[in-house]
Amino acid sequence: MNRHTGSLAIRKPYLLLVGDQSEPVFAKTAFGLRDWCGEDCVGQIRFADGAVDLGLPDYTPADAARSGAQTVVIGVAVPGGGLSAEWQEVLLALLEAGFDIASGLHDALEDNPALVLRARALGRRLHDVRRFAGPLKVGTGRRRTGRRLLTVGTDCAVGKKYTALAVARWLQDAGHPATFRATGQTGILIAGEGIAVDAVKADFVSGAAEALSPDAALGHWDVVEGQGSLFHPSFAAVTLGLVHGSQPDLMVLCHEAGRTVIAGLPDYRLPDWESAIAGYTDAARLTNPGARVAAISLNCGRLPAEARAAAVAGAEAATGLPVFDPMASAPDSAAVRALVGACAALD
Amino acid sequence: MNRHTGSLAIRKPYLLLVGDQSEPVFAKTAFGLRDWCGEDCVGQIRFADGAVDLGLPDYTPADAARSGAQTVVIGVAVPGGGLSAEWQEVLLALLEAGFDIASGLHDALEDNPALVLRARALGRRLHDVRRFAGPLKVGTGRRRTGRRLLTVGTDCAVGKKYTALAVARWLQDAGHPATFRATGQTGILIAGEGIAVDAVKADFVSGAAEALSPDAALGHWDVVEGQGSLFHPSFAAVTLGLVHGSQPDLMVLCHEAGRTVIAGLPDYRLPDWESAIAGYTDAARLTNPGARVAAISLNCGRLPAEARAAAVAGAEAATGLPVFDPMASAPDSAAVRALVGACAALD
Hints:
Two copies of one chain form a homodimer.
Chain A: E1 14-19, H1 28-36, E2 41-46, E3 58-59, E4 71-74, H2 85-96, E5 100-103, H3 113-122, E6 126-128, E7 147-153, H4 160-173, E8 178-181, H5 185-191, H6 205-212, E9 221-224, H7 236-246, E10 250-256, E11 261-262, E12 265-269, H8 273-284, E13 292-299, H9 308-319, E14 323-324, H10 334-346
Parallel strand pairs in A: 1-2, 1-4, 2-3, 4-5, 5-6, 7-9, 7-10, 8-9, 10-13, 13-14
Antiparallel strand pairs in A: 11-12
C-alpha cells in the first residue's frame, strides 16, 4: 500500500501479454513499458507468430512461471475492448501459475466474476489501472513541501508522458532526487503506481492530483505526467484539475511540431505559444503564485529530419524559452541543461 | 426516458421525507423543492414533532398513499450520510405503499440490496440523483442549435442554482421558451431530470454538459445551473468542463456580496470583477466565440437591508453590467429586463 496515494503498488517484474495483437499502435502500452522500465520486463507472451514482437524472451502461459515475473501486464488493446473467452482462459491459467494481473482495458478485470473468484481463492491481485480503488478527497489547495514539475500540452498525445519520464530521468542523472508521478494507464504501469485522473469523479480531480504528489523533502522534485489540454473542448476539465492539484513550480509545455488543430477536431485551432503559455501560467498561479512555464518540449517526430533544427530554433525565438525535442535531445544539450538548471535554482 | 440525456425522469408529484431532521440547514433540498416546485410537493413525512416543518400536509408512511404522490423524496441529509435500519424500514414500507424513491444521499439507494430487491419485485424505481445511470460520451465541442445561458460563480454556494431557476422563470414569463437544466441534486429533483456533473468521471464532464443541453429550436433558451467556480482550487475542473460543454451564449456571474475569500479556504481570495468576467469569458469562448457575461447576480442576503442598494449600485458601476439580487429583484426591475432583453436580442 502506497503511503501517499492509498494505491496498491503493482509488483514487478512484469511479463507483457501481447496475445495476437499484430498492430504496434495497439501495443503502445507494451512498447512504453519496454522503453521506460525495460529492466522490469522479463518477457512477452504472444499467441501467434504474427503478433507484435517486443524483442523480449518469449514465454507461453504454460512455462511463464519460469520467467521470474510477479505480474502479467495486458500490454495491448484487445479487440472490442473486452475479454474474449480465450483471453479469460489464459488469464485464469496465469493466475493459477502464480501471477498477479494488471490491465488498462476499459472492461475492468474486477468486473469479471470468474477472474475475481479465482484471484481471491489463490491470493492474487487484479490491478485495473484505470480505476483508482483508494479513497479520494476533494482538493484543498494547501501548499505542500517539495517541488513539482508538470508537463502540459497544446493537445492530447503530444508527448506529455514521454517528456515527464525524460525530465525525471534527467533530474535523477544530474543528482536531483526526482519521482515520476503517473496519471494515466501506461505511466502507472511504468511507475508501478499512480492515479488515472481522467477516470476519477470530477469533484476529485484536483484532490487526486494532490494525493499523487504529497509533501516531500526540500529539493525533491515530483515530475507529474500531464493529461489532456486546457485548449481541448473534451478534456480541459481533467487538465485544469490536474494543474490546480499538482500546484507546479515549473511546467514544461509540450507540442507536436506541425500540428495546427486539435487532433480529431479540425474546427479547433491550437493556441499560439503566447496564449498557451499565458493560459497555463494563469491557471497554475491559482494554487502556486510562483508557477511558470520553464521550457518547451517540441515533439518533432512528424517533421522531416532536416526540418527539425529549424522548428526548435523557431520555437526558441518565439518563446524565449529553452526548447528540446524529447525524443532526440541529449541530456547534455543546452535546452535540457537549462531546464535542469531552472529546477536546481529552486532547490 | 429523457430523449436527450438518457436519464429516467422522476415521476411527480413528490412527498418529501423529512424524518427526524430538526436542522433546517440539513433540509435544504426539501426547502428548495417546496420553493421552486411547490405545486409538485403534496406533503411531508416527519418522524417527530421537532422535525423541520415545510408547511405542507403531514402524512405517515401508513397513510402516505392517500397523498397522491408518485415519488417519495429524501429531502434531508441523514446523520452520517447513510441509511439507518429505521430509515430502511420506512423506505421499504413506502415502496410497498406504491412509491418510487428519490435520494441525493451519498450512500446510494442502489447500493442497498434490500431496497433494490424490493423495488424490483414491486416494479418501483429508485433514483440516486447524484449518480447518472445513462451512458455518457466525451465532449465534442460541436456547436448546437438553440441558445444557452449558464450561471457561473465567484465561489460555491453563492446562488447559481437559485439564479438559474429565476432566470428560466423570468424568460418564460416574458414569453421566451426556456428550460432549466439541472446539474446538481436539488436542481435535478426540482426539474425531475438532469445530470450531477460533479459525480461523472472527469473525462465526461463536458460531454455530460453537452448531453444536458442538446440541439434545440431557434429562440429556445436552456438555462444551465452552474457548479463550483473557476477560482476554486477544489472544484474548478467541474466548472471548466461545464462551461465548455454548455457552450453558453450568455453567462450570469453570481457572487455573494461581502464574501472576500473562498468559503472554507481563507487563503484563497475571490477574484475581482474584472478577473472573474475575463476568466469566464476566455474559458467559454473556446467552444462559443460569442460568449459573454451579460449580467451579475449579487446575492445580498448577508448584508444589512440598508446596505443592499449600495452594493448593487457599486457592482453596476464597477462592471457596467446589469446587476440584480436574485432573492429580491422584481421581474420588472431594470436589471432583469436588461438581461431578458439581452436574451431576446439573440433570438
